[in-house]
Amino acid sequence: MPEAIFLERLNVSANLDSQLRSGLSRRRVYILPTRQGITFSFLLLVMLLGAINYNNNMAFMLTFLLAGLFMVCIIHSYRNLRGLLIKGVRPEAVFTGDTARFPLILDNYGGRARFAIKVSVRSVSRLMGPGPEDERHALVTDVPADHWQQIEMPVPATRRGWLHLPSLVLSTTYPLGLFRAWSTVDLDLSCLVYPRPLGNLPLPLGNFGQASSESGEENGIDDFNGFRHYHPGDSIRNIAWKALAREQPLLIKRFKGDGDRQVILSWDAPVLRQKPVENRLSQLCRWILDAELGGAAYALDIPGITLETGRGRTHRKSCLEALALYGISND
Questions:
Q1: Burial 138-149, CB ≥16 within 10 A → b, else e
Q2: Given phi > 0 = left and psi -120 to 50 = alpha, else beta, which region is 116?
Q3: This prediction's pTM
Q4: Residue 290 and residue 160: Cα distance in Å, rounded?
């Protein structure tokens, strides 16, 4: 499925029409009276019957004036939503129990502003109407003319693996709340959910003296051993901030000792053998974060996947991803 949805518009520009044919998906905009709109129409009917019964010209004028306003609200509610372009951005990974935030971009290339655009999660589908919505995470925003607005849709991450963005409902009751225009949107967006880092077991001891051929080349936590230039993936806790404040190049503080430490985080470690699967994954996740924080190089060995010794943001991401997808199919 595409990651950009276009809400149907009566007059589509040639440029946008070519984009739609090249991959964007089009969604229809529906409109129905709200509860207030139904009540308003019933009152109009009562006013019309009263005007006919008493043959009062002023009553006829007021009734037809309000009826005209009622009809104009249909057009404004519909035009407030149609023509919007909704784009999705891949979210950052989170841990189990946290809230994943899916960035959404509402692109309003038209010449008029959009007011009170509501974005909510469609929890259960029905045969008629937009379906029940989760009002707890509903977002309301305005989009200026010829501009775009970014919002973040929060979705609870209750378990590890891939978390797919549920169907969304874009709606508006602008300007008077008499009509509700809406459209359902399905964006092909997923967020990776890591296991929750839990467990109080100490990090395995590992080996020393094999991570680097030069003493102090890697970052440790013992005696200070000078500076070196920053490399991508280095921990920000070892940045020489005082040197940076003096407008010097970005430097990393070097230490002797623990920077040469190598640990193997194994699924079959004796302390993990009696633990359930999810508890093992949570403890391994905790060890990965502890090893990264301590500056130690680490390898990960779980059934089906073996990652060589390394450190840094990329290696950490690969290890956590392996834990998140353990035992989960790629469907």
A1: eeeeebeeeeee
A2: left
A3: 0.72
A4: 20
CA–CA dist 142, 293 (Å, integer): 42
* DSSP per-residue letters across 96-129: TTSEEEEEEEEEE-SSS-EEEEEEEEE-S--SSS
Strands 224-229 and 251-255: antiparallel
Domains of the chain, earliest start first? 4-29+81-194 (2.60.40.10), 224-324 (no CATH)
Q: Is 140 helix (H, G, I), strand (E, B) or coil?
A: strand
Instruction: Work out the pLDDT band at 200, boundaries 50, 70, 90.
Output: confident
Structure tokens at 141: 């925003």
Share of the chain above pLDDT 90, in %: 44
- Residues in CB range of 209: below 8 A, 6 or more apart: 260
pLDDT band of 102, cuts 50, 70, 90:
very high
